[in-house]
């Protein structure tokens, strides 16, 4: 996935300024695709230069604040990207390398790190559950709501799995 496509998606959902987009990104797509606010602003400039979005100055705002709107070319690009084949995402997980290193040079104090990580995953799972209860408690949902809920469910499943993984690793380390 690329950041430009994530930003186009967010702007199609709701046109907004760069700062609003960065805040929204942190609360939604940012759970699955990380980007700094600086990266978002740089990418907005590229999208505007490519003719995919149009930035309009906000009246009375300081510092040249712009509201961005997706143009037809941006919608066309997002549609093109959606039809591309996607390779499975490779696993690139530092924790797996750390556990392999523990296996060859341990014991170390990696249990403390696993406990800390499990706690972080519990916190994120709690946030996802709160979002689920707040945004998806209705019995009948639209297609769009069902797709958004499915993305949230993927996050819930991931956090649940990571908690279980950390707990299993802790159990193995404590038993040895």
From TrEMBL:
<dbReference type="InterPro" id="IPR005149">
    <property type="entry name" value="Tscrpt_reg_PadR_N"/>
</dbReference>
<feature type="domain" description="Transcription regulator PadR C-terminal">
    <location>
        <begin position="91"/>
        <end position="174"/>
    </location>
</feature>
<feature type="domain" description="Transcription regulator PadR N-terminal">
    <location>
        <begin position="7"/>
        <end position="79"/>
    </location>
</feature>
<dbReference type="Pfam" id="PF10400">
    <property type="entry name" value="Vir_act_alpha_C"/>
</dbReference>
<protein>
    <submittedName>
        <fullName>PadR family transcriptional regulator</fullName>
    </submittedName>
</protein>
<dbReference type="InterPro" id="IPR018309">
    <property type="entry name" value="Tscrpt_reg_PadR_C"/>
</dbReference>
<dbReference type="InterPro" id="IPR036390">
    <property type="entry name" value="WH_DNA-bd_sf"/>
</dbReference>
<dbReference type="Pfam" id="PF03551">
    <property type="entry name" value="PadR"/>
</dbReference>
<dbReference type="InterPro" id="IPR036388">
    <property type="entry name" value="WH-like_DNA-bd_sf"/>
</dbReference>
């Amino acid at each position: 996935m690329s950041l430009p496509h994530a930003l186009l998606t967010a702007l199609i959902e709701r046109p907004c300024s760069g700062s609003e987009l960065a805040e929204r990104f942190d609360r939604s797509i940012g759970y699955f695709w990380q980007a700094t606010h600086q990266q978002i602003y740089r990418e907005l400039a590229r999208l505007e230069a490519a003719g995919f979005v149009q930035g309009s100055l906000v009246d009375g705002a300081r510092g040249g604040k712009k509201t961005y709107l997706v143009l037809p070319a941006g919608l066309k690009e997002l549609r093109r990207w959606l039809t591309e084949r996607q390779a499975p995402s490779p696993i690139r997980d530092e924790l797996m390398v750390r556990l392999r290193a523990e296996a060859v040079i341990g014991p170390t104090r990696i249990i403390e790190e696993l406990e800390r990580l499990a706690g972080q995953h519990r916190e994120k799972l709690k946030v996802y559950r709160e979002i689920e209860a707040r945004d998806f408690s209705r019995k009948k949902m639209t297609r769009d709501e069902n797709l958004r809920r499915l993305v949230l469910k993927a996050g819930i499943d991931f956090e649940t799995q990571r908690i279980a993984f950390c707990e299993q690793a802790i159990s193995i380390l404590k038993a040895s």
